[in-house]
Amino acid sequence: MNEDLKILVVDDEEIILNIFKEYLESTHNYKVLTATDGLEALEIIKSQKIDCCFTDLSMPNLDGLELVEKVRHHDNTIPVVVMTGYPSMDKAITTLKNGVVDFLTKPIKMDQLPPTIDKVMRERSQFIENVLLKEEAEKNQKLLKINKELQEKIEEVETMNLILQQLDQVASSRDLFATLVTLSRNITTCDESYFCIMSQDMTDPAIITSRARDPSTTTESAECLDKYVIKEVVDSGIPFLIKQNDAQDSIIAIPLKIRSNVFGVLASIIRDGKRQFTEKELYFLNFLAEKASFLIENLALYENIYENLFSTLYAFVETIEARDPYTKQHSTRVTSYAVLIAKALGCSQEEIDALQVSGNLHDIGKIGIPDNILLKPSSLTDGEYEIIKKHPSIGSSIIGHFNMWSNEKNIIKHHHERWDGKGYPDRLSGEEIPFLSRILSVADVFDALTSDRSYRKRLQDDIAVRMITENAGEQFEKKIVDAFFTLFKQGKILS
Ligand SMILES: [Fe+2]
Fold it and tell me: 337: closest CA among 439, 474, 468, 462?
């Protein structure tokens, strides 16, 4: 074995080199090369393939240890055997650390050489095998990693596609919100998912639609949402990932925006510390919310921005009216009365258009009023009445998210003001009250009086009209009441 090996011997004593060469070449078929210092040895190693190197420690130019270092750097599979005249433990440890594979103590007996060569060559094969195995293992590791990344990418693309496909099939705003919460639940397999709106002045978020793993666990009550988180999301306009809160819930809450105004929040929840949401899920839900927002805005661009946003908001109004069966269709009827009065008073088309929007949305702020107050069958306490009185301001701040409705926003805000200044929220009086709010107020009261309410039966039309005419100049502007009365007498206004 080990025939034809090329052995390099390095020593500054020529005589030692000659002994090595003669012994190894004559007794074995080794090819022996010699060098008298480290530099010369290095040149040889760099210019041809060397199988094993024996070196002295102290030599001029480049000593043994420096040579070992450089050989290792060049090719760490070449075994180097150090020959030293002063063996000591310290030196042995240092040199071993530097990659020396063996030691021979001077004076060297020639018959030590063949077994040493056999031994280091065996170790070298082992070493190379290990390196190869290690490389192989690393390659496998890399392959596994790439496969895993690929798998994740595929899942990512599939999820994105699912989102895009489902959103593509959405036909109306209401569909959109339902699709939004369904997708959010399916993608994250969370316990509950909600789309809600929250505006300034609102103390609790209003849930527009929700989905739950177990449908019996959700209510439409805002208690299931962390209102502080929702408020933060609305105020900051950025998504939140709460890994775990005090109640052991993990929450992702993401704003939906139109023209950078937040109009709603998608909130997903994992209950009872079962697990925590990941950054990846946040990424998916953010993508979903962005696409959904974009869809609303995009539809609006291609269709009619007013109509689209209007139908989005009107879906909210229908949600409120659905909560209270007594107010079903209230907004539609109020709008039709108000438009009749406005036309009779010679309002422009622009004013009629504004009335269409503000009439239909005038009570949108009720979305921020808790059910136990809004639907209370008995009379309200002063405190509860104060909360109800917030709905015009809440409504105007919801509408205020959409910059193009500043006029409508104002009309909604003041639809409960009174001509004599005793109304709310700002106690405006007379002509301080926007004209269209004054019209809306007459229409609103007429419909309220002629509809069944939880606390009383509807009134006959003529009784309701009489109550309104009696209040001309106090609650209502006389000119408007006159026009309303004329329309009633003409049979054009009927409950
Ligand atoms: Fe109202």
Answer: 439
- Unique residue bearing structure tokens 């369904």: 182
Residues near ion ligand 1 (CB < 5 Å) are 363
Ligand 1: centre distance to CA 369 (Å): 12
Q: What does the pLDDT look like over 143-197, one tens digit per residue? A: 888 888 888 888 888 999 999 999 988 877 668 888 999 999 999 999 999 998 8
Length of the chain: 495
Q: How far is the CA of 140 from the centre of ligand 1 (A)?
A: 69
Provide φ and ψ at 459, rounded to 5°: -100, 155
Which stretches of 425-466 are assigned E, i.e. beta strand? none
What 3-state DSSP class applies to 150? helix
Q: Hey, what's the torsion of the CAs at 11, 16, 17, 21, to 10 degrees?
A: -140
Is the distance from CB of 365 to CB of 394 less than 8 angstroms? yes
Please, are residues 91 and 70 in contact by the beta-carbon 8 Å criterion?
no
Gap between the Cα atoms of 420 and 131, Å rounded: 94
- Ligand 1 centroid–CA 357 distance in Å is 14
Q: 233 to each of 228, 366, 451, how far by Cα in Å?
A: 9, 21, 39
Cα(359) to centroid(ligand 1), Å: 10
**Rounded distance from Cα 491 to ligand 1 centre (Å):** 25
Two structure tokens written together for 90 = 């310290």
Regarding beta strands 6-10 and 31-35, do their DSSP bridges make them parallel or antiparallel, or are they unpaired?
A: parallel
- Cβ-contact 396, 366 below 8 angstroms: no
Distance 390 CA to ligand 1 centre (A): 10
Tens digits of residue pLDDT in 229-283: 999 999 999 999 999 888 889 999 999 987 778 888 999 999 998 999 999 999 9
Establish whether the linkage from the previous residue to 107 is cis, with ω within 30° of 0: yes
